[in-house]
Design a protein that fits this description.
- By secondary structure, this protein is α/β, with parallel strands linked by helices.
- It is built from 12 helices and 10 strands.
- The strands form 2 sheets. A 6-stranded parallel sheet has the order 4-3-1-2-9-10, sandwiched between helices.
- The relative contact order is 0.19.
- Bound molecules: D-glutamic acid (DGL).
- The site of D-glutamic acid has 17 residues, from helix 3.
Length: 279
């Protein structure tokens, strides 16, 4: 059996992609992860497809400096806007979060309607609907943007916060009436509000977490390519951010489930042009 001890590169618009890293660490604890969070330009979820695509290319190119064996586009918005472009542009295998979430949603739905909640840009791109229809054409897909969830999570509000409960009721009430069999959590931040979302959509809908499905897909890709690490137990997470490493450390802990120790700020000059700042 072959192996590959290079890192897995992961990028996101900011902090949220740490929910994907958490799932990767759960499933593949021996892998080394290099993470880039574009905290200077977050949020991506209200920006145009063109802008998000340009940012996603730059994020990928930054990660390519670390010679990753695979890049995970942890941001749903960047996956929705740019996954085809990135796959065509770079030789390294690239795994987004939309297709794994869509595939699991189809499986769990048994052909019944699927609801997707995500950022405005992800909903406007129609990427989840296209990915679902690529697996199973004709299935009914309802989509709803829930933009205020992102700010609520970053502010530290949890699923039992009354403001979150009110937001969830407002966003998900109309979807609940449509009786979907499955609800896809199509944004990095939503797993943190899972209990409130589950209560608001009701017990008839199964929840699909794109982060969990993505970690499973990454494991399958690496296994198939004989590219898992053989450094058993080594693991490790190194983070780079384009702004405010202190906030990333503080807020990131909630997303990752443990403390985020190794965070380095990358200046715009370094990010766009060359070497990595390592102080
Ligand atoms: N990471 C984004 C996503 O999953 C949410 C935050 C943002 O809008 O940048 O869509």
């Amino acid at each position: 059996m072959g192996h590959d001890n290079r890192c897995i590169g992961v990028f996101d618009s900011g902090i949220g992609g740490l929910t994907v890293v958490r799932e990767l660490q759960r499933r593949l604890p021996s892998e080394t992860v290099v993470y880039f969070g574009d905290t200077a330009r977050v949020p991506y979820g209200i920006k145009s497809i063109q802008a998000v695509t340009a940012f996603a290319r730059q994020d990928c190119e930054f990660l390519l400096r670390f010679d990753p064996k695979l890049i995970v586009v942890a941001c749903n918005t960047a996956s929705a806007a740019a996954i085809d472009d990135l796959e065509q542009r770079y030789d390294v295998p690239i795994c987004g979060v939309v297709r794994p979430g869509a595939m699991e949603a189809v499986r769990a739905s048994g052909g019944r309607p699927i609801a997707v909640i995500a950022t405005e840009a992800t909903v406007n791109s129609d990427a989840y609907r296209r990915a679902i229809h690529a697996v199973r054409p004709g299935i009914i897909v309802h989509q709803r943007a829930c933009p205020l969830f992102v700010g609520a999570v970053e502010e530290g509000r949890s699923a039992d916060d009354p403001i979150v409960e009110a937001l969830a009721a407002d966003y998900l009430g109309p979807l609940r009436l449509l009786q979907p069999a499955v609800l896809v959590l199509g944004c990095t931040h939503y797993p943190l509000l899972r209990p409130a979302i589950a209560r608001a959509i009701g017990p008839a809908a199964a929840l699909v977490d794109s982060a969990e499905q993505t970690a499973a897909t990454v494991a399958a890709i690496l296994e198939r390519r004989h590219a898992l690490t053989d450094r058993s137990g080594a693991g490790g997470l190194t983070c780079y951010v384009s702004d405010n490493p202190q906030r990333f450390r503080e807020v990131g802990q909630r997303f990752l489930g443990h403390s985020v120790v190794d965070v380095t700020w990358v200046s715009p000059e370094e990010f766009l042009a060359g070497e990595v700042h390592t102080v």
